Amino acid sequence: MKILETHFKKLLIILCLTTSPIASAEFRHFNDWEDSEKRVFLLYSTLSYIDYSQTKYALNDPCECYVEANPIWGKNPHPDKLLLGNILINGLIYTRIGRGQPESFNSMLVAGSVLRAGVIYHNQKVGIHWSVAF
């Protein structure tokens, strides 16, 4: 499993390095975003990471008493599938923010952040504390 994560990270780095020069001129990269866009994106990304870490921890629990409730992933998804899915979603969000007008996507991303926070809170109610992410 560690080997897959290592190869995936290398692939992701290569993808980022090869596609960044071909980005269109009107694309706004992170440094060109409004401060509010940066804060909302970083909030969503952090919440995504915490949710991913909680799920990975729960699915590796020896009691086998936890199942994934998100129907997209299935009841017992592989951690690599979760990681890839979260990276793709964050990449799509990054692209959407970069191609849109300043602050045009903030309200939708705030709604997504609230939803992620709700999932994290629910996980704590079943005993998977957010501290497992750190």
Report on this structure.
The structure is a single chain. It is globular, with a radius of gyration of 16 Å. The two termini are 20 Å apart. The chain is built from 4 helices and no strands. Helices cover 63% and strands 0% of the residues. Helix 2 packs antiparallel against helix 3.
The percentage of residues in β strands lies in under 5%
Contiguous runs where pLDDT drops below 50 for at least 5 residues: none
Number of helices: 4
Distance between the termini: 20 Å
Oligomer: single chain
- Range of helix content: 55-70%
Spatial shape: globular
Give me the secondary-structure category.
mainly alpha
- Average pLDDT figure: 82
Major sheet details:
none
Order of helices and strands: HHHH
Number of E strands: 0
Radius of gyration: 16 Å
Q: Key terms for this structure?
A:
134 residues, mainly alpha, 4 helices
Summary of the model, kept short:
This protein is mainly alpha-helical and 134 residues long.
